[in-house]
């Protein structure tokens, strides 16, 4: 099997599996006052400190969550509520056009139910949010902006945004910025303090940790009204008993991927270059989407003119090569990608695209398998696509 | 063979796929998403388009151990089936959307895509017997007379049928349910679908009203020409309809009135007594021959004019693309736009000879 869908989820690192396995039988609620409770609390706090250190954050800025979607919901809704409570004029929520649905749908919910006015920050043809575009949008009325949300790196095409510059634009206008860094951590250098963002979301399963565990990094000066109420854990921003083993697994994975990031990124960049070269050689009119000068090292996203992405995916799947068409809805229907549409692609191109995403288990053999299979698959679809079964006149 | 099993999420298509697997074919399951917004068309436990149905289809594929995908054919479905349905009604005709879906979606758009992907055939859970005799496909009625769906498959061309597979044709519905339970398919007890899948509440009139709006016209007594009332549009009626005509005055002879004819241009709905509904001859066009054998001489056959019932013996004659049928006994409720299917009676399942779209009817034999 050739697994090239690491951007969807990547296998757990052996180090994380080992740490979690060791932590699973440990008894103790980190909120309990007895010795077992203290032991659990200590493990959680050590995990918090190591995760914070790896990402340039202060331990008190780490809020453990149930993953990326929860983190984005909490950041969007929580910061919106707090900012508007402080000043009722702040109703505008500015989100980039290429955000994950965890951000887009949270923003839409705020618009439908909480009186937010959601505005889209456009991207250019390679999927970048330009600082001038953000500045212009804020400047229409800076006082009315509750927050800005721009992802660090795009999950479909892999384009990496200049987050620090975007933060500077927002902060110069007195506006906080949240960034969904789910695809970025472990793939590109991520430093919470250096980038200046008010909130940053990551999740375990995209970086070799467990599914269902993530973190929201939240600056102490940024108020965030809780979505979920209860025992008051995590600075009362996120109530709920802490999942010790998962948190330990998450922190172990973060520490590991951040430490190995420079070398691993270089290795993936080479594989990606090989993949891109091979695919474009096999299918000369294929288009590599995104921004090659500022991209995730392992993500290669192509449009294959004259092919439907889901057909191509199915053909490759039948040959043991696993990739993705982009985002899928609950019914499993491949919709034309909103990311490509925002980048100016037409609907046909947006439906004729595939994402190959490499990760820590990817090898040169994986790349060779795709390169060997893609040409015949595209040819088969294009050739057969012209044939029609005779139907009633 | 490489077989693509269309899996609606119901029990029939699940068992059909299971049988294809059992026969040793290389089977892949596909659920067709036919609504642009899944969940908005039907929200009940049945239908073709819900997330729940997609889930049921996926779970059936899991049990069978076959790959499974969801294909989005919503745009094609809207254009070819829903829009056509509305257009036909507004033209005063009575379409059969399930037939249209078979003709244009399942055995056209889906089949084309399947062939492009290297599949040899599309497998569905329809109740009809399909075999190849002397190199030509033969489509026959199902062994389950109540469930027989040969009528809604009869407009498929010979080429479409060559790439089709109906593994349930020789079975009865109770046997299929039993088999589903034995195979551990959770859809074994799922209720049958009845309504039109894109009309969630079964209110066809309401759906048409929302799409077409009001086009007022008059209800006219076909015999006397007397205006009996007003109506909101010919799309609110079908030929043979008796109830809900909205006429206050009873007929002079006290007998019930029926819709006899719809005239969309003038907006006139003609009504009259039952015997005036009776049709003795039918003209059709767009003739198809499932076995690729057009009738070359006048042929005695049995015709069927709607999905359930509406049978009569007839003499069929073909001239060019036109088919004329002289009925051995009159039929009621025959409307232009409906499909007439020609059968050759047989103890091994009546054979579909051909099918045509009804263009005109006459009360007298030709």
UniProtKB/TrEMBL annotation, chain A:
Catalytic activity: (sulfur carrier)-H + L-cysteine = (sulfur carrier)-SH + L-alanine
Cofactors demanded by this protein: pyridoxal 5'-phosphate
Family: Belongs to the class-V pyridoxal-phosphate-dependent aminotransferase family. NifS/IscS subfamily.
Source organism, top-level taxon: Bacteria
Sequence ranges assigned to domain Aminotransferase class V in this UniProt record: 2-369
Protein's name according to its UniProt entry: Cysteine desulfurase family protein
Keywords of the record: Iron, Iron-sulfur, Metal-binding, Pyridoxal phosphate, Transferase
Leader sequence residues: none
InterPro entries assigned to the protein according to its UniProt record, in alphabetical order: Aminotrans_V_dom, Cysteine_dSase, PyrdxlP-dep_Trfase, PyrdxlP-dep_Trfase_major, PyrdxlP-dep_Trfase_small
From TrEMBL, chain B:
Location within or outside the cell: Cytoplasm
Site positions (Interaction with tRNA): 126, 338
Enzyme kind, highest EC tier: transferase
Source taxon at top rank: Bacteria
Keywords from the named record: ATP-binding, Cytoplasm, Disulfide bond, Nucleotide-binding, RNA-binding, Transferase, tRNA processing, tRNA-binding
Enzyme active site: 101, 197
Span of domain tRNA-specific 2-thiouridylase MnmA-like central: 206-272
Span list, region Interaction with tRNA: 147-149
A Pfam family matched in the record: tRNA_Me_trans_M
E.C. numbers: 2.8.1.13
Record's keyword annotation contains Disulfide bond: yes
Domain tRNA-specific 2-thiouridylase MnmA-like C-terminal: 281-358
Catalyzed reactions per annotation: S-sulfanyl-L-cysteinyl-[protein] + uridine(34) in tRNA + AH2 + ATP = 2-thiouridine(34) in tRNA + L-cysteinyl-[protein] + A + AMP + diphosphate + H(+)
SUPFAM superfamilies: Adenine nucleotide alpha hydrolases-like
Binding annotation for ATP: 6-13, 32, 125
PANTHER family per UniProt: MITOCHONDRIAL TRNA-SPECIFIC 2-THIOURIDYLASE 1 (PTHR11933:SF5), TRNA 5-METHYLAMINOMETHYL-2-THIOURIDYLATE -METHYLTRANSFERASE (PTHR11933)
Function, as annotated: Catalyzes the 2-thiolation of uridine at the wobble position (U34) of tRNA, leading to the formation of s(2)U34.
Family stated for the protein in its record: Belongs to the MnmA/TRMU family.
The protein, known as: tRNA-specific 2-thiouridylase MnmA
Taxonomic lineage of the native organism: Bacteria, Bacillati, Actinomycetota, Actinomycetes, Pseudonocardiales
Gene it is expressed from: mnmA
């Amino acid at each position: 099997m050739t697994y090239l869908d690491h951007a969807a989820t990547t296998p757990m690192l052996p180090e994380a599996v080992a740490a979690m396995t060791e932590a699973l039988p440990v008894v103790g609620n980190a909120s309990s006052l007895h010795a077992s409770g203290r032991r659990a609390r200590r493990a959680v706090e050590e995990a918090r400190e190591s995760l914070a250190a790896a990402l340039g954050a202060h331990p008190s800025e780490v809020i453990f969550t149930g993953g990326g979607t929860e983190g984005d919901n909490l950041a969007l809704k929580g910061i919106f509520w707090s900012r508007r409570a402080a000043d009722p004029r702040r109703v505008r929520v500015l989100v980039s056009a290429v955000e994950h649905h965890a951000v887009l749908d949270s923003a839409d919910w705020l618009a439908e139910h909480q009186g937010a006015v959601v505005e889209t920050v456009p991207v250019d043809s390679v999927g970048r949010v330009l600082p001038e575009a953000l500045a212009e949008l804020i400047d229409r009325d800076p006082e009315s902006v509750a927050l800005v949300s721009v992802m660090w790196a795009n999950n479909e095409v892999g384009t990496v945004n200049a987050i620090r510059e975007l933060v500077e634009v927002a902060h110069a206008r007195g506006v906080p910025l949240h960034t969904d860094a789910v695809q970025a951590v472990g793939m590109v250098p991520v430093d919470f303090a250096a980038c200046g963002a008010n909130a940053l979301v990551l999740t375990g399963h995209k970086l070799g940790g467990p599914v269902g565990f993530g973190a929201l990094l939240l600056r102490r000066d940024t108020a965030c009204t809780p979505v979920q109420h209860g025992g008051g854990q995590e600075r009362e921003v996120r109530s709920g008993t802490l999942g010790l083993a998962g948190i330990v697994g998450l922190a172990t994975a973060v520490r590991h991927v951040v430490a190995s990031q420079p070398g691993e990124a270089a290795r993936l960049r080479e594989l990606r270059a090989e993949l891109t070269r091979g695919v474009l050689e096999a299918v000369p009119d294929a288009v590599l989407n995104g921004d090659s000068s500022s991209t995730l090292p392992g993500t290669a996203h192509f449009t294959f003119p004259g092919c439907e992405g889901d057909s191509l995916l199915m053909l490759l799947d039948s040959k043991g090569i696993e990739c993705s068409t982009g985002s899928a809805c609950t019914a499993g229907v491949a919709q034309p990608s909103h990311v490509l549409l925002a980048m100016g692609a037409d609907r046909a191109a947006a439906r004729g695209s595939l994402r190959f995403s490499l990760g820590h288990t990817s090898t040169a053999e994986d790349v060779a398998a795709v390169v060997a299979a893609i040409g015949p698959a595209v040819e088969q679809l294009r050739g057969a696509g012209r044939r029609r079964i005779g139907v009633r006149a | 063979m490489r077989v693509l099993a269309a899996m609606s999420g119901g029990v029939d298509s699940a068992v059909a796929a299971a049988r294809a697997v059992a026969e040793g074919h290389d089977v892949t399951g596909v659920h067709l998403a036919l609504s642009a917004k899944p969940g908005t068309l039907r929200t009940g436990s049945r239908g073709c388009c819900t997330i729940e149905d997609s889930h049921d289809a996926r779970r059936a594929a899991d049990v069978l151990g076959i790959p499974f995908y969801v294909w989005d054919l919503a745009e094609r479905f809207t254009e070819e089936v829903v829009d056509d349905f509305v257009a036909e009604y507004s033209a005063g005709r009575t379409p059969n959307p399930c037939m249209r879906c078979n003709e244009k979606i399942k055995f056209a758009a889906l089949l084309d895509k399947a062939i492009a992907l290297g599949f040899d055939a599309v497998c569905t859970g329809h109740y009809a017997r399909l075999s190849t005799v002397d190199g030509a496909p033969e489509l026959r009625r199902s062994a389950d007379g109540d469930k027989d769906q040969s009528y809604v498959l009869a407009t498929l061309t010979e080429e479409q049928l060559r790439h089709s597979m109906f593994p349930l044709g020789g079975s009865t519905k109770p046997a299929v349910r039993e088999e589903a339970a034995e195979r551990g398919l959770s859809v074994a007890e799922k209720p049958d679908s009845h309504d039109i899948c894109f009309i969630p509440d079964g209110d066809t009139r309401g759906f048409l009203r929302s799409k077409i709006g009001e086009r007022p016209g008059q209800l006219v007594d076909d015999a006397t020409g007397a205006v009996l009332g007003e109506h909101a549009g010919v799309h609110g009626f079908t030929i043979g309809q008796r109830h809900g005509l909205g006429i206050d005055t009873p007929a002079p002879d006290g007998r019930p009135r029926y819709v006899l004819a719809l005239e969309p241009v003038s907006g006139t709905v003609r009504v009259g007594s039952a015997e005036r509904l009776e049709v003795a001859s039918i003209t059709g066009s767009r003739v198809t021959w499932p076995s690729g054998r057009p009738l070359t001489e006048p042929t005695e056959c049995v015709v069927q004019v709607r999905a359930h019932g509406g049978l009569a013996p007839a003499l069929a004659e073909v001239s060019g693309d036109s088919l004329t049928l002289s009925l051995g006994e009159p039929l009621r409720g025959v409307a232009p736009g409906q499909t007439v299917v020609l059968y050759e009676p047989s103890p091994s399942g009546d054979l579909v000879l051909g099918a045509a779209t009804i263009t005109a009817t006459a009360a007298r034999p030709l």
